[in-house]
Amino acid sequence: SAINFLERLCLTWMFFFMMCVAERTYKQRFLFAKLFSHITSARKARKYEIPHFRLKKVENIKIWLSLRSYLKRRGPQRSVDVVVSSIFLLALSIAFICCAQVLKGHKTFLNAPYNWEFLIWEAALLLFLLRLASLGSETNKKYSNISILLTEQINLYLKMEKKPNKKEQLSLVNNVLKLSTKLLKELDTPFRLYGLTMNPLIYNITRVVILSAVSGVVSDLLGFNIRV
To answer: Whole-angstrom Cα distance, residue 14 to residue 174?
Structure first.
C-alpha cells in the first residue's frame, strides 16, 4: 500500500508539474501578445517602455506582420500542445468512465472510493483547462485585433485630405492594410477551443463519444430519451 501510494503521488506530481509548465507558457504567450498590441499606441508603448511605430508605411506593416509571426512561434509549441491535448484526452476519458458508471447505477456511484478519485481528478483537470482556455482566448484576441488596422486606415484617410500630394503613396499603404486585414482573418485556425489547439481527431472524438455519453446519462436520469 505504501509503494502504491508513493507511485501515485510521484505520477500525480509529474503530471501536474507538466500542466504548470504549460500554464506558464500560456502566460508568456499572453504577455507577448499584450505587449505586441501596445506597439502602435504611443501612450501604451511609453507606459510599458517598448518600441513604438505607426503603420503608415509599407515597411512598417511588413515589420509588424513579421514581428507578429515571430512572437506567435516563440517558445515551445509542439511539447505544450502535446501536454494540453493529453490533459484534454485524460479529462475526456475520466468523464466517459464517470458517465458509464452513472449509467450502470447512479444510486451507488458515490459509494465506490475510486469514483471519488475520478471526480477529484476531473475537477482538477477541468480547472486547468478552463485556465488555459481563458489565457488562450485572451492571447488570440490580442493577436487578432483587427481594430488596430482599421484605426490606421482611418488615419490614412485623414492624411489624404491634409496632404493631397501624397495621396498615391498613402493609397498604396491603405491597400496593403486592407490585404493584411483579410490575411489575419484567414489565418485563424478552425480547430480551436477558446484558444486551445484542437486536433481534428480529438475534435471528432469529443463530438461523438462524450456527447453520446452525456446524452445517455441525461436520458437515464430524466427518464426519457434525449439527443444532444
So the answer is: 52
Listed by start position, the domains of the chain span: 2-222
CA-based Rg of the chain, rounded to a whole angstrom?
A: 24
Tell whether the model's pLDDT for residue 204 goes beyond 80.
no
For all residues of the chain together, what is the average pLDDT?
79
Query: For the chain, give me the number of helices (H) and strands (E)?
Result: 9, 2
* pLDDT category of residue 14 using cuts at 50, 70 and 90: confident
pLDDT of residue 139: 86
pTM: 0.75
Report residue 209 as a C-alpha cell: 463519444
Residue indicated by cell numbers 508513493: 6
Biggest CA–CA distance in the chain, Å, is 84
Mark residue 199 as left, alpha or beta (left: phi above 0; alpha: psi -120 to 50; beta: remaining).
beta
Please name the helix (run of DSSP H) or strand (run of DSSP E) that holds residue 196, with its range, or none: strand 196-197
121-136 residue pLDDT tens: 888 888 888 888 888 8
| 3-state class (DSSP) for residue 208 | helix
**Cα 171-174-175 angle, rounded to 5 deg:** 90
In terms of Cα–Cα distance, which of 121, 107, 119, 30 is closest to 71? Answer: 30
At 53-77, the pLDDT tens digits run: 888 888 888 888 888 888 888 878 7
Q: What percent of the chain is helix, strand and coil (3-state, nearest 5)?
A: 80, 0, 15
Inter-CA distances, 148 with 3, 106, 156, 186, Å: 58, 53, 13, 17
